[in-house]
Amino acid sequence: MKDRGIYGLMAEFETVDAAVIAARKTYGAGYRKLDAYSPFPVEELSEAIGFHKNGVALICLIGGLLGCTGAYTLQWWINTISYPVNIGGRPFHSWPSFIIVTFEMTILFSGLSAVFGMLALNGLPMPYHPVFNVPRFEFASRDRFFIVIFSSDKNYDAVRTRQFLEGLGATSVAEVPS
Amino acid sequence: MAKATEVEVGEQKAPVIAPGHTFATITDKIASIVLRRPITNGWLFGLAICFLILQWFTYAVCLLFYKGVGIWGVNIPVGWGFAIVNFVWWIGIGHAGTLISAILLLLRQSWRNSINRFAEAMTLFAVACAGMFPIFHLGRPWLFYWLFPYPNTMTYWPNFRSPLVWDVFAVTTYLTISLVFWFIGLIPDLASMRDQTTNKAVKFTYGLLAMGWRNSVRHWNRYETAYLLLGGLATPLVLSVHTVVSFDFSVGIVPGWHTTIFPPYFVAGAIYSGFAMVLVLAIPIRKFYDIEDFITQRHIENSAMVMLATGWIVAYGYAFEAFMNWYGGDPYETFLRWNRLHGPYAGYYYGLLFTNLIVPQVLWIRKIRTNPVWLFLISLDVLVGMWLERFIIVVVSLSRDFLNSSFGMYYPTRYDWAIFMGTLGFFAACIFLFLRVLPAVSISELKTLLPESQSTVEHETEVHS
């Protein structure tokens, strides 16, 4: 599929610090369509490429609220409207006994929302991605750090961008075929 | 508060990760256990034994489904026999895994990073064992879905005022959240395994499971948020699960059950037995799989100290139970106290006091606390003790409640034993398989324990455009 064009340029770095400095310089040079890769979470690296906030917490909150109100409403509806059972004249809407199921469903829905929300925002599952075409990229899960500038960036230029990345102290720069 | 990276430790404490490791050696060492280590005879032998026990279990369960719960020793008055004892015991064991993965995550106890993976696996398998018992206990296990609220032609709904229904919701939520927590933690490591292997089929399988994880920092950012949120959600969840389990008892009016101390006392007991199981698994695993660099003396000692602390909370529970029996002045509660100490099951009660209270006190001695063999034996002792505790709560209270005319004895049958032992076999077989197919220690989380994982770049160097 190499004839389909170039997805971007990939630069490899050996240490966290080298990658963070390079990422800041890349962002500072005006590149906006870029991504960085690291074998473990590095907060500074995502900050450096201008990725500060994510929507996972909001999705989790919405899921939790839905679970909470849904579970309580269901119990209220069952016990007062659909299936009221008179036990010695006790109230149908006996809210203290509904708290536990409401709590558990809040946790369940917010937990699943956080997980599936995270996967959805990350666009996973995604079995194929152009970055996997670079053989060195398998080190991204091991001990190397990568920065990719996508060819869709308005400042992207096959020659100048490559020179720029090489100037950042990358141990190697490779074209990512798409 | 402790700093996130506690690589620098005092002279007394063993390090959380042995010196000399780099990102690459961590990846190699953990991945090679699964990818390159040959299948040993010891592993095959262990799995074979567990598999045999599992067949025994399958036989007993088939017979149970065919003939009904009559093959068990349960009777009236003791309608809750081994099934409930084992259910509570197993679910308690699971709690240590969530404690390690969620509560210690929130408390920034970074030493947890090397034991959380297999502790979570332990949780999953223990909850799976626990979940089987209430279903077996139903009598008509194929109708278990009646427990869930769904529109049906019988126009009936579950009774949401019953602790047994609360239990269904608590345990299924716990199982689901434990499963996703464990799986989410595995995704980056599955990607590592995919990148480490050269075998096409293995690469494909791990690749499929990793869902195309490519270590992008954007993904990591969202991942960290989701992981932290799950930790925050699993913390109240784990405390609620054993609380709800204790409601199964304390909402009832049976002497010895109807007490408000049950929820905290059950939760502490759960963590107590759970850490015992963590040690029973960790001590042989680190030895046979040669990962003493990652599961160090520090982890072993910390777990022993958690056990000692929770053991004292449990002891406090016993003491207060006895005090309230006396202080409450209720004749049935007074009788329960007498019955525990002098009744037909008194031997079990003394056994419980010995195994759960007296023996673990040797953990105060540092030499014993840091000796793997001793610690292994003490952990087994605690597991037995906690099982006895559940036996006493369930059986002693039920066998002699209010009326002398309805007193009775409970004798477990061989099918009770077969199913209990069978779940032990099931649990151990799952652990054996887990060790061979998945990374038993979290690769990506372990890397964050190395000092070179921390960026030292000052914020001032930021280049403004």
Q: How does this model look, in words?
A:
The complex is a heterodimer of chains A (178) and B (465). Chain A is α+β, with helices and mostly antiparallel strands. Chain A has helices at residues 16-28, 43-48, 56-82, 99-121, 158-167; strands at 6-13, 34-37, 145-150, 172-177. Chain A contains five helices and four strands. A four-stranded antiparallel β-sheet of chain A has the order 2-3-1-4, with helices on one face. In chain A, helix 3 runs antiparallel to helix 4 (99-121). The longest helix of chain A is centred in the middle third of the chain and has 27 residues, at 56-82. The N and C termini of chain A lie close together (7 Å). Chain B is mostly helical and 465 residues long. Chain B has one domain (23-149, 163-453): Formate dehydrogenase/DMSO reductase domain (Formate dehydrogenase/DMSO reductase fold), CATH 1.20.1630.10. Chain B has helices spanning 23-35, 41-67, 82-106, 116-137, 163-196, 200-210, 217-250, 262-288, 297-328, 331-342, 346-358, 366-369, 372-399, 414-437, 443-447. In chain B, helix 3 (82-106) crosses helix 13 (372-399) and helix 7 packs across helix 8. Mean pLDDT of chain B is 88; it is low at 1-11 and 460-465.
Question: What oligomeric state best describes the polypeptide chains here?
Answer: heterodimer
Class of the largest domain in chain A in CATH? Alpha Beta
Query: How many distinct helices of chain B?
Result: 15
Strand percent estimate of chain B: under 5%
Separation, N- and C-terminal Cα atoms of chain A: 7 Å
CATH topology of chain B: Formate dehydrogenase/DMSO reductase fold
> What structural category characterises the helix and strand content of chain A?
alpha+beta
Helical content class of chain A: 40-55%
Count structural domains of chain A: 2
- The CATH architecture category of chain B equals Up-down Bundle
How many β-strands of chain A, per DSSP? 4
Low-confidence stretches of chain A: none
Question: What is the mean pLDDT of chain B?
Answer: 88
Strand order of the largest sheet of chain A: 2-3-1-4
Q: How would a textbook summarize the main sheet of chain B?
A: none
SSE string of chain A, helix = H, strand = E? EHEHHHEHE
Specify the number of helices of chain A.
5
User: What fraction of residues of chain A sit in β-strands?
Assistant: 5-15%
Looking at the structure, what is the overall shape of chain A?
rod-shaped
Largest beta-sheet details of chain A: 4 strands, antiparallel
CATH class assignment of chain B? Mainly Alpha
